[in-house]
């Protein structure tokens, strides 16, 4: 009997994703000035206004003017020049302050910047092995990213930056066999009719799917309310860190609970989640298992992890615990070790704010370094 699984994505112009991008842009600004900078930056977006708050520590703190310019540049890049939310006219309120001395003390002695649990996951979807991601979330991201690229290139005038997608994948005997349903809601110019929006968006849905996987029209819902003109922060308030399942595995694998955006890599809820993805992906790429789930936990101020766990869901071709022991030998899981291995103390974070932190292509800048397969051969040879 077929099994259905659904994941959703949201575009870079979604109010929450605006806040993620602003938080990560401010983090990158700090790291550009000082590779040892510490940040935990939150943003709120509402009609005509962005509010920034959080804690920072740096030997070269950016000025208030630099921070405001960074906020405006980020919103301009996303594409907001709308009456109630325009990068040129929004009010930017800045409430950043110095990192707590109690937190700083723990990090100064090379400990984790927070307690928590972090997960990493990778899977071979038959026929889609290249990204080692669950298929529903990968396709949901791809649809919105393709629409965004076309919008930025002025190929689809009248389509706004705020959008959401949802993809339901059909599984037969554990293998993805087709798409059952697709939902896309996209902001649009009031002059565009629903049939016009539908025809525009269907083109980019089809381009995003494997050949022959386009579902029939009745299973494609586009702007199901019939109209989506008021979008972005003028229609809904945004907050940093409110789309953590979109950021990771679309609900197909666990998430530890901590958000990523705006946090420097001493915050293990970001850096350790990246490391767990890196290790899980390399395990699968090495052919040691068809899927791999890893969990790690930390205490604030303590360098070494408290626990390290593996579950290959019965797909491992070698002993799971031997894989775990080998990973522990090969990878330094202290915060400093993770930062060094993945080179995370660089301004590489703003591109992660939309379309997922995982399943992406490593960039020359160092962004998505955790997607590299640099351990796969060594893991394979160890067995």
Main features:
24% strand; 10 helices; flat; four-stranded mixed β-sheet; alpha+beta; 383 residues
Polypeptide structure, described:
32% of the residues lie in helices and 24% in strands. Strand 9, helix 5 (194-208) and strand 10 form a beta-alpha-beta unit. The chain has 10 helices and 13 strands. Helix 1 (15-33) packs across helix 2 (64-78), helix 4 crosses helix 5 and helix 7 (268-285) crosses helix 9. It is α+β, with helices and mostly antiparallel strands and 383 residues long.
- Judging from the principal axes of the Cα atoms, what is the shape? flat
Distance between the termini: 37 Å
Whole-number mean pLDDT:
95
Portion of residues within helices: 25-40%
Q: Major beta sheet, specifics?
A: 4 strands, mixed
Low-confidence stretches: none
How are the strands ordered across the major sheet?
Answer: 1-8-9-10
Radius of gyration: 21 Å
What is the N-to-C order of secondary-structure elements (H for helix, E for strand)? EHEEHEEEHEHEEHEEHHEEHHH
Number of strands: 13
Q: What structural category arises from helix and sheet content?
A: alpha+beta
Instruction: Give the amount of beta strand, in percent.
Output: 15-25%
The quaternary state of the protein chains shown equals single chain
Tally of contiguous helical segments: 10
Task: Give the arrangement of secondary structure elements.
Elements: E1 3-10, H1 15-33, E2 38-46, E3 49-57, H2 64-78, E4 81-82, E5 85-86, E6 91-98, H3 101-108, E7 116-123, H4 135-152, E8 159-172, E9 175-188, H5 194-208, E10 220-222, E11 238-239, H6 244-247, H7 268-285, E12 291-298, E13 307-311, H8 320-330, H9 335-342, H10 376-381
Parallel strand pairs: 3-6, 9-10
Antiparallel strand pairs: 1-8, 2-3, 2-11, 4-5, 7-12, 8-9, 12-13
Helix pairs in contact: 1-2, 4-5, 7-9
């Amino acid at each position: 009997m077929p099994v259905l699984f659904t994941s959703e994505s949201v575009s870079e112009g979604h109010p929450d994703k605006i806040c993620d991008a602003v938080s990560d842009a401010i983090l990158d600004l700090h790291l550009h000035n000082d590779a040892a900078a510490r940040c935990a930056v939150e943003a709120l977006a509402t009609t005509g206004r962005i509010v920034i708050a959080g804690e920072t520590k740096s030997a070269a703190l950016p000025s208030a003017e630099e921070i405001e310019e960074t906020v405006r540049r980020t919103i301009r890049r996303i594409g907001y020049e709308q009456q109630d939310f325009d990068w040129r006219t929004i009010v930017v309120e800045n409430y950043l302050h110095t990192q707590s001395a109690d937190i700083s003390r723990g990090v100064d002695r090379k400990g984790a910047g927070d307690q928590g649990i972090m997960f990493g996951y990778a899977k071979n979807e038959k026929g889609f092995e290249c990204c080692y991601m669950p298929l529903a979330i990968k396709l949901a991201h791809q649809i919105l990213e393709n629409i965004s690229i076309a919008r930025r290139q002025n190929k689809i005038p009248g389509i706004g930056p705020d959008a959401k997608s949802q993809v339901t994948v059909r599984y037969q005997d554990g293998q993805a066999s087709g798409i059952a349903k697709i939902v896309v809601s996209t902001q649009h110019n009031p002059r565009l009719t629903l049939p016009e929006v539908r025809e525009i968006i269907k083109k980019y849905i089809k381009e995003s799917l494997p050949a022959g996987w386009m579902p029939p029209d009745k299973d494609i819902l586009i702007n199901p309310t019939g109209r989506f003109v008021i979008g972005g922060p003028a229609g809904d308030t945004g907050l940093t860190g409110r789309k953590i399942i979109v950021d990771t595995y679309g609900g197909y694998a666990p998430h530890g609970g901590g958000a990523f955006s705006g946090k420097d890599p001493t915050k293990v809820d970001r850096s350790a989640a990246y490391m767990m993805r890196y290790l899980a992906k390399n395990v699968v790429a090495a052919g040691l298992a068809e899927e791999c789930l890893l969990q790690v936990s930390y205490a604030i101020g303590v360098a070494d992890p408290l626990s390290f766990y593996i579950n290959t869901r019965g797909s491992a071709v070698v002993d799971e615990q031997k894989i775990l022991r080998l990973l522990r030998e090969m990878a330094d899981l202290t915060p400093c070790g993770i930062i060094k291995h993945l080179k995370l103390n660089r301004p590489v974070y703003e591109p992660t704010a939309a379309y997922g932190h995982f399943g992406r292509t490593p960039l020359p800048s160092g962004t998505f370094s955790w997607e590299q397969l640099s351990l796969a051969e060594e893991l394979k040879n160890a067995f």
